[in-house]
């Protein structure tokens, strides 16, 4: 077990934040973090060293100029055997199960 840290952040579009050193330094402080309103698509390139993730992208509306919504749950690679995504049909809810033995 031991102490684990969690964070949630509404990023109002992930975009260039994955190249922003201050942003990356901040999120890397946590074992787990969720980014909301990522506005990502199935074509988005998502990578943060030493982290894996689960994500949900909301389909862009026919008249929309950009994507909206989007959730990404990141977790340190060292925790990968303790995390699993719970299936859901929703594009607005991401369920994740964390094994109690990790906590």
Walk me through this protein's architecture.
- It contains 1 helix and 6 strands.
- It is mainly β.
- The radius of gyration is 14 Å and the shape is globular.
- The strands form 2 sheets. The chain has a 4-stranded mixed β-sheet, with no helix packed on it. The protein has a two-stranded antiparallel sheet with strand order 5-6.
- β5 and β6 form a beta hairpin.
> What's the count of strands?
6
Order of helices and strands: EHEEEEE
Q: Strand order across the biggest sheet?
A: 1-2-4-3
How many helical stretches?
1
Low-confidence stretches: none
Strand content: 25-35%
Separation of the first and last Cα atoms: 5 Å
What does the main sheet amount to?
A: 4 strands, mixed
- Looking at the structure, what is the overall shape? globular
What is the helix fraction of residues, given as a range?
Answer: under 10%
SS-derived structural category: mainly beta
Round the mean pLDDT to the nearest integer and report it.
92
- Oligomeric organization of the protein chains: single chain
Search tags:
4-stranded mixed sheet, mainly beta, about 100 residues, globular
The gist of it:
The protein is mainly beta and 103 residues long. 7% of the residues lie in helices and 29% in strands.
